[in-house]
Amino acid sequence: MITSLTTTDGHHNIVSGAGFETTPFGRKADEDIKKLRVLKELVAEKKMNEYDSGGRSGDKGPGAENDGNTAPLPEKVSVGGSPMYRIGKKLGKGGFGQVYVGRRIGATGPGALEVALKFEHRSSKGCNYGPPYEWQVYNALGGSHGVPRVHYKGRQGDYYVMVMDILGPSLWDVWNNNSHTMSIEMVACIAIEAISILEKMHSRGYVHGDVKPENFLLGLPGTPDEKKLFLVDLGLATKWRDSSSGQHVEYDQRPDVFRGTVRYASVHAHLGRTGSRRDDLESLAYTLIFLLRGRLPWQGYQGENKGFLVCKKKMATSPETLCCFCPAPFRQFVEYVVNLKFDEEPNYAKYISLFDGIVGPNPHIRPINTDGAQKLIYQVGQKRGRLTMEDEEDEQPKKKVRMGMPATQWISVYNARRPMKQRYHYNVADVRLAQHIEKGNEDGLFISSVASCSNLWALIMDAGTGFTAQVYELSPYFLHKVGCVLLIQRLVYCNSCYIYI
C-alpha cells in the first residue's frame, strides 16, 4: 500500500508498505508497480545508467569502477613471488579493474606461457582500505568448481595485481559472434552448468551479485578446458551466510543502494533489498532468456529514470510473456526462482533436471561440459533428466501464501526529497523506545515515520522534518497497533506532532 503524505512545508513523502516481500512476477503486479514510486527520485539521483557494465549489455551500479586514474601500467609484472610477466593485449575491463594477457618472460614451448593479469589501481573504490575486497573472495572460492584459480597476487607500483588462469571468450562474445543467436541445446547446457557453479559458490557462503553473459567465460580454445564454463568478476560478491554463526544474514531494504547490472539484476536488487541466493538465480534466468531470444523486454530505456523503468517493466512482465518463444523448462525455471523467499534454500537439483531433458543424452558431445552438474542430477532420481518427486511431477509452481505471523521485514519509508541526516531503528522493544527517541532529539533528529509489529517498533528519525519539538506517549490502553500506526501517520506531520503510541 502506498500512501502519499503532505507536510506543512509542501513536501510529499511516499510510504511503502512492505510487511511482506514483493513477488516480482504475476502475483500482485499492480501493487508492486505502485511500490516502485518510492524508487523514482532515488534512482534518478543515483543515475544508475551512468555506470558501465564492463560490456555492452547494460549498466552497472555503485561499486563499478571506471578508469579514473592516469597512472600507466608497468611493462613487466612480478608479484607475490611470481615469475616475471610481460604485459600483452587487453582482454577486457570489468566492474573492478582491467585484465591483460601476461606472457612469462624466458619460458619456451606452447604450454604454461600465458596468464591473465588483473590490475586494480590503489585509489579505486575497492582498494580504500588496502588490497581489493575481491581478493578475499578468491581466497575463499578460487579454484573451486567454475571459478578460475589465482596463482599469485600482490602490489606493484600503484596497482594491485592478480595472476590468474587465462580463459577464453565470454558468453556475450560467443552470442555476439554468432549473429546474436544461440541454440536451445547450447543455452540449456549453459543453464545446467551455471546452476551447478552457483550451487557450489552458494555452498561456500557467497552470492555472486552480478550474474550476466559477460561474466561467464569458456576455457581457452584448443585446451582441455575449452568447453568448460567459468564465472568471473567477484568484486560484487557478498556473503549470504554469517561465517561464525552459520546463520543467514538479516534482511534489509535500502532503495538508494543498487548493486549489479540493470539489465540482468533481480527485482529485489532494484528495490535495494539485501542480496541472497535467489538474486543470483533470477539474474541467471534473465541471462538465459537473453541468450535464447536475443533481447529482453526491458531493453532500450534511456535517461535518468532508466533503472526505475526497467524495474517497473520486470515487475509487469509475467513468466509466460517473458518466455513465450522458449521451451517450457525456461518458463518453469523463471517461475521457480522469482518466487523464492529471501532466506529460502534453492532446489538446485530440481532446476538442473528441468533442462537436462533438452540436451543430448551423450555428455561428451554437448556444446558445454556439464560434468560438474552430474552429482546434482543424480540427486533427483536414478534415471537421467526425470524428477522423482511425490505428487509433483507435472505440477506448476504454486503461488506462495504467507501464513501465520507477519514476516520480519519492516515497512520501508523513504522521503522523495534530497537525502538528509537520518537514523533508522528496527525491532525496538517498548522499554527501549524512549531512549532512542531522546537520543535522537538531542542530536536534532525527530520522528518522521513509525511502524509496529508484535510489540516491536520500527522508527525513522531525521533532520528534515521541520519540527522543533515532539511529544509522544506510550500507552498500553490505546488502540490495537495496526490502527495505531494509521493514526500516527495522520498526526506525525502536524506542527505540534503529538504521537500517541
From TrEMBL:
EC number: 2.7.11.1
InterPro entries: CK1_Ser-Thr_kinase, DUF7477, Kinase-like_dom_sf, Prot_kinase_dom, Protein_kinase_ATP_BS, Ser/Thr_kinase_AS
Gene3D superfamilies hit by this protein: Transferase(Phosphotransferase) domain 1
Keyword entries, A-Z: ATP-binding, Kinase, Nucleotide-binding, Transferase
Enzyme class of the recorded protein, top EC level: transferase
Region Disordered: start-end pairs: 1-22, 49-79
Pfam families registered for this protein in UniProt: DUF7477 (PF24289), Pkinase (PF00069)
Molecular-function GO term, any one: protein serine/threonine kinase activity
Domain of life: Eukaryota
CDD domains for this protein: STKc_CK1
Domain Protein kinase: 85-365
Binding sites annotated in the UniProt record for ATP: K118
Family the UniProt entry places it in: Belongs to the protein kinase superfamily. CK1 Ser/Thr protein kinase family. Casein kinase I subfamily.
Protein name, UniProt field: non-specific serine/threonine protein kinase
Organismal lineage: Eukaryota, Viridiplantae, Streptophyta, Embryophyta, Tracheophyta
